[in-house]
Amino acid sequence: MQLFDSTSAIWKASGDDAVESAKKEFVEVLKVLEGALGEKEYFAGDAFGYVDILAIPITSWFLASEKFGNFKVEAECPKLSAWIKRCMEKETVAKVIPDPEKIYEFVVNLRKMFGIA
């Protein structure tokens, strides 16, 4: 829950200070995840497991946060970014995870609908 709340806080924010604050909180959450991942390929070790299954879907929302927050997850958390890429190489994952561009378009429309500039 904290992961989604912190990623959505970026694109829900209005004003530079609010965006920067939300971005900082989001990156802190990502760094906790990256720390849990450590040097492993997946959260459970060498095999794709339950934590990976639970965590990977939220990453499709990251592009919207990157665009509205003007940063790159890869620059802030390279090991986590590599994990995302590794997971997306799995056909079973790639087939079911929403396209980040479509999520971004959805978020743009949400912001318009709620009058967030």
UniProtKB/TrEMBL annotation:
- The protein's name: GST C-terminal domain-containing protein
Q: What CDD domains does the record tag this protein with?
A: GST_C_Tau
Entry GO CC: cytoplasm
Gene Ontology molecular-function annotations: glutathione transferase activity
The record lists the organism as Linum tenue
Parts of the chain that traverse the membrane? none
Pfam families, sorted = GST_C
Q: What is the lineage of its organism?
A: Eukaryota, Viridiplantae, Streptophyta, Embryophyta, Tracheophyta
Instruction: Name the PROSITE patterns on file.
Output: GST_CTER (PS50405)
- Identify the residues that the record assigns to the GST C-terminal domain, covering every copy: 1-106
- SUPFAM superfamilies hit by this protein: GST C-terminal domain-like
Provide the GO biological process annotations: glutathione metabolic process
